[in-house]
Specification:
Layout lengths: L1 H48 L5 H43 L5 H34 L24
Helix pairs in contact: 1-2
Length: about 160
């Protein structure tokens, strides 16, 4: 059990770190792209004030920066998916490489299933027995010869 806890803690740590880093990738890429936009805007504004370039040139450079950043962001996302796929594949192959359980464990599992099935059957039989006993102890009422409210004879169907 101690070995399982140790392996489980290691897996949890690596999975958490992987998710954390993959979650950071997109914001970092957007931040770098936005830094490029800020640089183009500030430098373009300074050059526009000096009269060296026009506002349309700044707009064109902003579009160029966006077009340049888009494939980089997509590549980062693809790398992220590939990393997750590799981690999942590693876990699958690790599972497939495990040696099979011993027949002793399989026999124990079969016995546990058998006991569970017998317990279910016993519960079902007890439930039926309780219902049958409750029906047997219910008093059977016979129809009256006379109707209690009017003191008239009861209808023919109710007479025994």
């Amino acid at each position: 059990m101690q070995k399982f806890k140790k392996i489980n803690a290691k897996l949890f740590t690596s999975a958490w770190m992987s998710q954390f880093l993959s979650g950071l990738m997109m914001p970092i890429m957007n931040f770098v792209g936005n830094l490029g936009l800020v640089g183009v805007s500030v430098l373009g504004g300074w050059l526009a004030i000096q009269g060296k370039i026009k506002i349309g040139d700044i707009q064109a450079f902003i579009q160029y920066v966006n077009q340049f950043n888009q494939p980089i962001v997509q590549s980062a996302n693809i790398a992220n998916v590939m990393q997750s796929t590799a981690a999942a594949g590693e876990r699958v192959f690790e599972f497939l490489d495990e040696k099979e359980e011993s027949p002793k464990i399989k026999k124990q599992l079969c016995l546990m299933k058998l006991r569970a099935g017998l317990n279910l059957i016993m519960w079902f039989l007890d439930t039926i027995r309780i219902r049958l006993l409750s029906r047997a102890s219910t008093p059977k009422l016979r129809p009256a010869k006379e109707s209690p409210l009017s003191a008239q004879p009861a209808p023919e169907k109710l007479r025994s």
